[in-house]
Hints:
Blueprint: E1 14-17, H1 26-36, E2 43-46, E3 52-53, E4 56-57, E5 71-74, H2 81-90, E6 95-98, H3 103-107, H4 112-122, E7 126-128, E8 134-137, E9 142-145, E10 151-158, H5 161-173, E11 178-183, H6 192-199, E12 207-212, H7 218-230, E13 235-239, H8 244-249, H9 253-257, H10 260-271, E14 274-275, H11 279-289, E15 300-304, H12 307-319, H13 329-336, E16 344-345, E17 349-350, H14 354-357, H15 360-372, E18 377-382, H16 387-390, H17 395-412, E19 416-420, H18 426-433, E20 438-439, H19 442-457, E21 472-475, H20 478-488, E22 495-498, H21 501-510, E23 515-519, E24 531-535, H22 538-552, E25 557-561, E26 569-578, E27 582-589, H23 594-597, E28 600-604, H24 609-617, H25 623-626, H26 636-652, E29 656-667, E30 670-673, E31 677-681
Parallel strand pairs: 1-2, 1-5, 5-6, 6-7, 10-11, 10-12, 12-13, 13-14, 15-17, 15-18, 18-19, 19-20
Antiparallel strand pairs: 3-4, 8-9, 8-11, 16-17, 21-31, 22-25, 23-24, 23-25, 26-27, 26-29, 27-28, 29-30, 29-31
Helix pairs in contact: 5-11, 6-7, 7-10, 11-19, 12-19, 15-17, 17-18, 21-22, 24-26
Amino acid sequence: MTGDLSVFRDPRSVAVVGASPDPAKWGYWLARGALQGAGRRPVHLVNARGAVIEGTPSAPSLRDLPAAPDLVVLCTPAATVPGLVDEALDLGARGLLAITAGIDLAHGEPGLERRLAARVRAAGARLVGPNCLGVYDAATDLELAWGTFTPGHLAVVSQSGQLGLELAGLAAHAGLGVSRFVSIGNQVDVTAVEVLDDLVAHEATRAVVLYLEGFADGRALLGAMARLRAAGKPVVVLTVGASAASRAAARSHTGALTAATEVVAAACRAAGSVLVDTPAQAVELAHLLLGSPLPPGRRVAVVSDSGGQGALAADTLAREGLAVPRLSAATADALARSLPATAAVGNPVDLAGAGEQDLDSYGRVVETLLDSGEVDAVVLSGYFGCYGADTPQLVHRELEVVKTLADAARVHGRPVVVHSMSPDSEAVRTLRASAVPTLHTVDAAARSLALAARLAAGSGAPVPGAAPGAGTGAALPYLEARARLAAAGVAYPGAEPVRTADDVRTAAARLTAPYVLKAGWIEHRSDVGGVVAGLPDAEAAVGALRDLTARLGEGGYVLEEMDTRPGVVELIVGARRDPAFGPVVLVGLGGVQAEVYRDVQVALAPVTAGQARELLGRLRGAPLLTGWRGAPAVDLDAAAEVAAAVSRLVAEQADVAEAEVNPLRVGPTGAVAVDALLVSGAGR
């Protein structure tokens, strides 16, 4: 962290400038919230007309306050903000919370907000905002934001104030609550990285939800997220397509295939965090992160008091990439001994009415499954949670089962996730309070469990470093690009430069037929018919040169040996510099249809060969690599070595902006690259 942020979590005193008695205005909510903490710190209200707010009189200006404020909240017209900043700094304020938006526009001075931030830092103070919704800290009675907050253990850090409020509201509705809320706004001074670092030692926070629309210093952000993970506080990330412009500017298929969210998802995996799609998904996942153990694997047992609900739960889990394995005969027999003869004990487990006969059946079945060691989590789906709500006489017995479930999860270190038909009952509330995640839909339970498994499997290693690089420059000619990639460890067939018919004949004598002729100076030569393959001899190659020269003009052509090995699968391997997160590597099914299939995996670069092999294994088309319909398996180790080499090239050599091999032809006997694209850094 680059500075002390204590003034934004537990200030010695607070002054709200722009306090209002009108409940429809921001100034009212800020004043009202500040007064909630009046028992902990002095609260001063500033209103030019001297209005009384919630029974508390206000002063007409900061200079009229009885004491200098520690934290000044600015909720006034944009035109007044620069003067108020100077006034607050003159009084010795350590922190400014700027709610006001549009300061640059109001003054017709682009960059004014950042100049104000520099002025604040020069005075030894800090600024959150502007254009933010405020801050809240449950542990210190600090509430300086619109709305109301429910205390809990989930921290919310959001670039969008309103989306942050939605997250806080969803958390409250789910019975989770918020430990700290920070709307960071324009981040002209205090950044998301600093706010995250300030949460590492925050005792009340057990998990964090982060919403950002842009990633100015992605690697620094990942470092903060990794530090939170190391402190046992996983981070859930929400974002939008912030890097669309950079994708459009990319020169390679790799650039076109690395969507903004795919890069962010890869970055999150590197930091041991996880990317979700919606605020609801973030809060649903938070149920599993606030005290519940994470699943050590992807094997899930389903327990239900309804055959239909159990089957749907199993299907839903499978769609999320989780396994619902058949139980061993020993475990099935143990379950059968305590259930009716009509029960199903293979997985899903159908209690067949046992719950109605004896509520303890739920606990016994879950304990048996966790004790078996055959599953990494249990999903309990159906009516449980409704018994006490529908039949008050059963409340006590249902709560006893809740305790059994919570104890079983804690003892075995594996989560029990409940999908209950009751959205809110005493049992449901107690389940959540006992760190047993309880959700109202089975798809939410399955999705959250899959995300939790991804988090558990996430990297705990340091975020990979990379050399700084410049922007995109020119594409190198084919032979030069090939040479750079070959020097990095990528195998290529023999090739010779040619310009004339005599060059072709001389080159053909040194190479092995059949041949391929390429227009080496064109980046995407296949798109313009700049590649002729399957040339059986020198004279066929001479004819091809004449045809290409007639269509494309004279230039640096290349005659290359053609890879004719059987059983080959074509892959794409590429790496590029993302403007926020730095080097990223991509592997996928390749060839001219690479962008059609979009079957790719992305990771931060550099990667090891082992990590690259894991990426290849996650492709939808992975069965093509391991032997599909009797075909021989290809050399995955060779493909992984190429991916690692390309990732190192971009990560370690600052003059390379993009590098790509498409296709990389991988067969049972190795991997051979038959194309090369290398884009230099700007200024090369």
